């Protein structure tokens, strides 16, 4: 589990559990049935500085993931690549890296002048 999810789970575990259970029990309608629970997770997570930084730095990938979920409510498994992109960004933030470095880049690449 990425550090970002671990932080959110530690701070908002009960909210995440209720939301996850609702999504699992409501295929095809989870986006409607679980809306209030989604808001409770969001409200809980907004209170942590790391989560706020992830939301700021990874907003593009998160918005893409949310859009995928909205567009494919009956087949959320199609949103895997969006989740992966968001989680990679969040992991970079939690490790103090700039989000979105080129694939294969290492932290030392920039200091070598190219």
UniProtKB/TrEMBL annotation:
One of its GO terms (cellular component) is mitochondrial intermembrane space. GO terms for biological process: cellular respiration. Residues 5-49 form the IMS import disulfide relay-system CHCH-CHCH-like Cx9C domain. This is IMS import disulfide relay-system CHCH-CHCH-like Cx9C domain-containing protein. Pfam families: CX9C.
């Amino acid at each position: 589990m990425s550090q970002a999810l671990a932080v959110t789970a530690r701070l908002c575990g009960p909210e995440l559990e209720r939301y996850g259970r609702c999504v699992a029990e409501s295929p095809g309608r989870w986006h409607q049935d679980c809306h209030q629970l989604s808001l409770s997770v969001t409200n809980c997570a907004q209170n942590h500085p790391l989560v706020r930084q992830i939301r700021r730095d990874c907003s593009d990938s998160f918005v893409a993931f949310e859009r995928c979920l909205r567009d494919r409510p009956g087949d959320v498994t199609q949103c895997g690549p969006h989740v992966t992109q968001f989680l990679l960004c969040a992991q970079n933030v939690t490790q103090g890296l700039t989000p979105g470095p080129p694939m294969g880049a290492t932290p030392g690449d920039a200091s070598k002048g190219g």
